[in-house]
Amino acid sequence: MTTEGATAGPRRFPIGLTLAAAIALVVLVALGAWQIQRLKWKQALLAKIAALATAPARPLGPVLAVGKGVSAEFTRVAVECSPPPAPAPRIFRYSLRQGQVGWRLMTACPLAAGAFDSIVLDRGLVTAFTGAMAPRAVDFPAPAAVTGILRSPGGASLFDSAPPPPEAGVTALRVIDAAALERIARRGGFSRPAPWILAVESERPAPAGVVPAALPEDIPNNHFVYALTWFGIAGALIGVYIAMLARRLRGP
Q1: Contact in structure between 4 and 217 (CB atoms under 8 Å)
Q2: Which of 133, 146, 160, 226 is deepest in the core (most CB within 10 A)?
Q3: How far is the C-alpha of 150 from the C-alpha of 148, rounded, in Å?
């Protein structure tokens, strides 16, 4: 029989609290480590882009012939487009540049030899479409001699909205992923497009009303700050857990 004023026994170790804290700590540390890896990747990417300032253009054929496993992204190349089998279809890609809505002209460049019969060109922003919510039926000449930067196609996002309905005879794309490359190639009469986008820096002759924009205006590199944030939250979690554990075991 207990009497008033008797002391309570020792508190049990909080297994549930410890397990929850351990899981949260693992997740936070993993996120911080992932940001460190992203930092290394971004630094290498920025160094590669900086090297483009003095990099000469290489022939496209040998670059594409290297094969899988070697990234050709952000390589400057030059190519002569063969005469197209049919008039170029009107294909445009949604874009944002300097805070304004725009549309990029996308065209398949026919290749005369090699494993691929074409490569999709991002020829630049159509000035007449600046601020327009949908592209219009405007024809442009087929590409001839092109110098540009190889870029990887993007990926479709679950949050990407559908492009607005354009005029008849016009294709408007929200993103350019591997499926979009195939679609652009088929529209031009090709079946084996290269797995890259060639972002045009210059054309001869240059199509009127198209401004090349091969590289992003700004590539942020905040991964170190993000890593510090995740590691900081992990440290705070440890401090809170120790304080709660000490209070729980000490009792009232």
Answers
A1: no
A2: 146
A3: 7
Location of structure tokens 């705070």: 236
**98 Rama sector, left if φ>0, alpha if ψ -120 to 50, beta otherwise:** left
Is it the case that residue 69 has pLDDT exceeding 80?
no
Give the pair of three-digit tokens for residue 68: 């899988």
Element (H, E) at 76: strand 76-80
Bond before 252 cis per omega within 30 degrees: no
The two three-digit tokens of residue 52, written as one number: 């483009």
* CB 13 within 8 Å of CB 250: no
Tokens standing for 95? 């874009």
Residues in the chain: 252
With a cut of 60, say whether residue 5 has pLDDT above it. Answer: no
- Full-model pTM: 0.74
Spatial distance between the Cα atoms of 29 and 231, rounded to a whole number of angstroms? 6
Q: Which residue has the tokens 């607005």?
A: 164
What are the pLDDT digits (tens) for 223-249? Answer: 999 999 999 999 999 999 888 888 877
Q: pLDDT digit string (tens) for 112-150?
A: 878 899 999 999 999 999 988 889 888 999 999 999 999
- 171, with CB counted inside 10 A (0-12, 13-18, 19+), is middle
Rounded distance, CA 91 to CA 171, Å?
Answer: 5
